Amino acid sequence: MAFSRIDETDLLLPLHEGAREEPRWATFLDRLRRRTRADAAHLIITPGPLPAPLPAIAPDRLRPNRVYAAAELDEAPAHGDLRIMRVTETGGTNAILAVSTTERAFAAADSALLSALAPHLAVALAALVASERLRARLATAEDALTRTGTGWIGFDRDARVIDCDPGAASALRKLTGSAPAIGQRLRTGDAESERLLLLAAAAFADDQNAPPRAIRLSAGAALDALLIPSAPAMTALLRFPPRSGPARLAAIEALHGLTRGEARLAAAIADGASIAEAAAATGLTIETARNYSKRIYAKTGVRGQGELVRLLCTGVAALA
Question: Is pTM, for the whole model, over 0.70?
Fold first, then answer.
């Protein structure tokens, strides 16, 4: 079946753009319903149950790209008519496309229309799967950066902010009283750092192979940034204090066989405290803290505070 120009505009464009709608494919389904004079049109990404009035059948019983009529199904609707088709994209994700009525019967042209839509639906489904995979990957990367205490700000060649992650936005809000404004230059309250940002952005825009540059965004707040080349100009990487909480303590205990008290002391030392400072922070006497530290060194296999700090700050417990 060849699509008319009206079908291309009314059906194919909404089908290919439908994954970005909310709810997904609402326009395409509404137009397909009207085009086939159906009471309802459904597009279901499986696995998942098929909504009424669709028959309660396992989708894998449907051969891909074949349009089934109600009479061909074991659990056909008691009234009306149905046309249903399964489409599979290359990665194995399935979609069920169906139209149903409660009174009239579908014509052969309706089945032909669904069949002609199959390759276009496969392309739209593949695009959705790729988009969701990328979304999951970006969410994982964002979480990993947050766990490592890393934030970033993207800039164009004029040092205008083009994007920013939540951690960096929070740090800049504490520094300047406001988050970085998209489309505006970063205001740090430090004229020299703002000048260096502008020079670096222009330099990186002209040479994406230039080496990174480290600058201090604010001398007062001791907030530093590593500037690296990235399209269209550069990205500023920021580091924040390590996170400390029950999950981190539990990870230290599990990885190194420490008690909760030992883990609390080890975490305080890893955060830069001396034995005396760590003892005070964890409610221990200095003598008890010293005894704990000896046990910690023995259990972790390190030879002192320096090695303990390196172990805990570079190990996976720091990501908990």
Answer: yes
